[in-house]
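QA checklist item 7 of 12: single-chain prediction sanity check.
[x] sequence parsed
[x] length recorded as 146
[x] structure emitted
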Amino acid sequence: MPTAARLVAAICLAVLALVVSQQVKPLMPEGTDFGYFDFVNMGLGLLCGWFVMGTRAGRGISAGITNGLTGMAALVFWALFVQGSYEMFRLAMRNRYDGPFEAVLAIFEKGVEFGAVLLAPNIIWTLLAGAVICGLMTEVAWRRWR
């Protein structure tokens, strides 16, 4: 059922995904074509906020902070998986893999490569602070608009 907490969580995580996506771009190799990178990550933020954070709202402030961290972790996991899958598909269309198992394994290899970019201190701090803010805003929305 749609609630204000789900909507606030979805919007907050989408904004967090956009901010982090903008921080990642300068860290990638020059000439990288990002295409729909921001929109895909924002869509994943909307989905993770709605389904992961929104359903767990209303359990208190400390649970709200933990909820934000859980939503952020889910967002990072799915973003790495989706971006890794896209990169694997792009390379598979150029016949870079010998078989399907090698292609599936490449999803995780690309995800790890992209995850290494997220280890920059400014991105880590943005993710942590954004997760706490998202969790608290979701909790406030749940308390205000039940």
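[x] summary fact logged: DSSP finds five helices and no strands in the chain.
[ ] second reviewer sign-off
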